Amino acid sequence: MGRWIQDESPGGDSAVAAIEARLAALESGLAGLVAAQEQAAQPNYVERGTQQLLAMQYRRDAAAGVVHDFGSVEFRNHSQNGEDGILHYLFSVIGTTSRYVVEMCAGNGRECNAANLIINHGWHALLCDGSEENIRIANDFYWRHPDTMRIPPAICQAWLTAENVNEVIARYGFDREIDLLSIDVDGNDYWLWRAITAANPRVVIIEIQAGWMADAAVTVPYDPQFCVRKLVDPVLQTDVDYCGASLPAMVKLGREKGYRLVGANRYGFNVVFVRNDIAAELLPEIPAEQCFGHPVARWQYGRVQPLLRREAWVEV
User: Fold this and answer.
1) Residue 3: pLDDT over 50
2) Is the pLDDT of residue 68 over 60?
3) What is the C-alpha radius of gyration for the chain, rounded to an integer number of angstroms?
4) Which end of the chain has the smaller Cβ count within 10 Å, N or C?
5) Nearest Cα to Cα of residue 314 among 254, 269, 248
6) How far is CA 72 from CA 86, 88, 137, in A?
7) Which pLDDT tens digit goes with each residue over 218-259?
8) Other Cβ atoms within 10 Å of 315 Cβ, number
9) 47 torsion bin: left (phi>0), alpha (psi -120 to 50), beta (else)
10) Rounded CA gap, 219 and 187, in Å?
11) Are residues 105 and 3 in the same domain?
């Protein structure tokens, strides 16, 4: 009855519309706050103030010539593993320029290497993924999150190939020097990095096919429609994804493009390259073998390498 009276009064429709708009805005804001609280409630979540304190200590240590190994600085807020901590350490000591990041195969945007930088440090990002559902979740998350809802990252649904990757980067204004390029497409990772000329990243973090360890410089043959395939050994009861490229292949490519290998996550499957003109004394090049020092990693990779050797690979 009250709604009918309101609608019949002068200006009733606009008043109702205004109330509904306010309610929608409140609902969206509440959803964003809930999402932020859920994140902060995660076990071992390193909140923004603690990260700022860590950054100051890292810079003091670097000035005193103290360098931390990546294993000691790992933490996970939004990354799949300890990459959040590694990247926070790196940019604490080498600084930033644009605070631009491009992430290829960012998933749903909530779990990716760029998310901590976007949410807690105000970075601008281009997040790419081929899944329509992942893109929907990412848009919903960043448009509702209180720290990103005013200026969310650029989010692009695209199946990235060597032929279109530069066009996608340029379309969103990331054809410039950027601080970080993250590649984890479970497929043509080597070929995408090789093709990229539009952006000039200071740091590259990229997933490798760690099952090869440092034994060969190989990559999957290039196919723009390549899809990861699971290899299974029922006798050993182990499996591995057929995709990507070995670390020696990435090291060779990095050198061609002017980058050096400086470290990896704990198990050696996400590796970090820094451009040669940046912090060479603080972050020297390391041998590929050093990335596979963890005993569990070496045990597992030794078990799956016979599976990988049966597949098609291209030496580079």
Assistant:
1) no
2) yes
3) 22
4) N
5) 248
6) 9, 12, 32
7) 999 999 999 999 999 888 788 999 999 999 999 999 999 999
8) 10
9) beta
10) 9
11) no
